[in-house]
């Protein structure tokens, strides 16, 4: 069965009530995706989740960009998966490279894996991010890094969990740099990721799991990327805050 195209937006630490109102007004003008072969999910900052959810078109879904581990309790400032679920937000982005590599955050493979399992166990769907640093690519370690990150996640999941997981391959060297991976580079890695899932999870999960590309995706480069057989969509940063995001949503056509 063909995989439904998936376009995620990651607003990161951006937006104000005013700018969100304006961009959501633009997004709401786009064609309906209710009966289309594409799924659209917007990752927003926690503090603007309700605000955005109230205004955003109902055929697009909402995500947050992190969750903490463990139910409730004395974790000042943290947000649990139960709270996210209770707030009616179906998705969460986990393992983003900015949370793995920023010195203030430094989330380990194990922490990311625990969060993914915990979010799924609490009824959330997960965009699980993987991806290599430039120096890792230059040393020919891309596949090893991605498989190491995937292995940590897979070790905590049951096969049926994967129906609620989307894998986002985001080469760190392409994030926010304008240096988008070529369609061939993206296809090569996506093929490796799908092959790893087939061998280490199951062939059926490998056939069904969406593998997104993220890293300087724009309306201009999205169509050729979308044309690659193992590119099932995108996780878009900067361009998800602009009207051109509507063109990226349509790139699968
Ligand atoms: O981090 C990204 C990609 O960001 P850009 O599209 O701005 O490169 N997605 O999660």
What would you call the structural class?
alpha/beta
Mean pLDDT: 96
* Share in helix: 25-40%
**What name does the CATH topology carry?**
TIM Barrel
The largest β sheet comes out as: 8 strands, parallel
The first-level CATH class name: Alpha Beta
Bound molecules: phosphoglycolohydroxamic acid
The name of the CATH superfamily reads: Aldolase class I
Radius of gyration: 17 Å
- Give me the number of helical elements: 11
- Can you list the strand order of the major beta sheet? 7-6-5-4-3-2-1-8
Total beta-strand segments: 8
Following the backbone from N to C, one meets helices and strands in this order, namely EHEHEHEHHEHHEHHEHEH
Number of domains: 1
Low-confidence stretches: none
Topology of this protein?
Layout: E1 5-10, H1 17-27, E2 38-43, H2 49-55, E3 61-64, H3 81-86, E4 91-94, H4 97-101, H5 109-121, E5 125-130, H6 134-138, H7 142-154, E6 165-169, H8 183-200, H9 203-208, E7 211-213, H10 219-226, E8 233-236, H11 245-249
Parallel strand pairs: 1-2, 1-8, 2-3, 3-4, 4-5, 5-6, 6-7
The protein binds phosphoglycolohydroxamic acid.
The site of phosphoglycolohydroxamic acid has 14 residues, from strand 8.
């Amino acid at each position: 069965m063909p995989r439904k195209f998936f376009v995620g937006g990651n607003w990161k630490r951006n937006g104000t009530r005013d700018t969100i109102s304006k961009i959501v007004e633009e997004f709401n003008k786009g064609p309906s995706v209710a009966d289309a072969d594409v799924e659209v999910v917007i990752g927003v900052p926690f503090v603007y989740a309700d605000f955005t959810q109230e205004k955003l078109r109902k055929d697009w879904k909402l995500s947050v960009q992190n969750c903490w581990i463990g139910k409730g309790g004395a974790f000042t400032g943290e947000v649990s998966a139960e709270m996210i679920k209770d707030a009616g937000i179906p998705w969460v982005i986990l393992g983003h490279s900015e949370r793995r590599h920023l010195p203030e955050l430094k989330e380990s493979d194990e922490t990311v894996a625990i969060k993914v399992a915990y979010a799924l166990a609490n009824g959330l769907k997960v965009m699980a991010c993987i991806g290599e640093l430039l120096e890792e690519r230059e040393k020919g370690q891309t596949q090893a890094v991605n498989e190491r990150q995937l292995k940590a996640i897979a070790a905590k999941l049951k096969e049926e969990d994967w129906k609620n997981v989307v894998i986002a391959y985001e080469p760190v060297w392409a994030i926010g740099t304008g240096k988008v991976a070529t369609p061939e580079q993206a296809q090569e890695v996506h093929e490796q990721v799908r092959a790893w899932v087939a061998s280490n999870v199951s062939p059926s999960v490998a056939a069904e799991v969406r593998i997104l590309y993220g890293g300087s995706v724009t309306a201009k480069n999205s169509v050729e990327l979308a044309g690659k057989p193992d590119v099932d969509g995108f996780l878009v940063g900067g361009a998800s805050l602009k009207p051109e995001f509507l063109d990226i949503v349509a790139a699968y056509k």
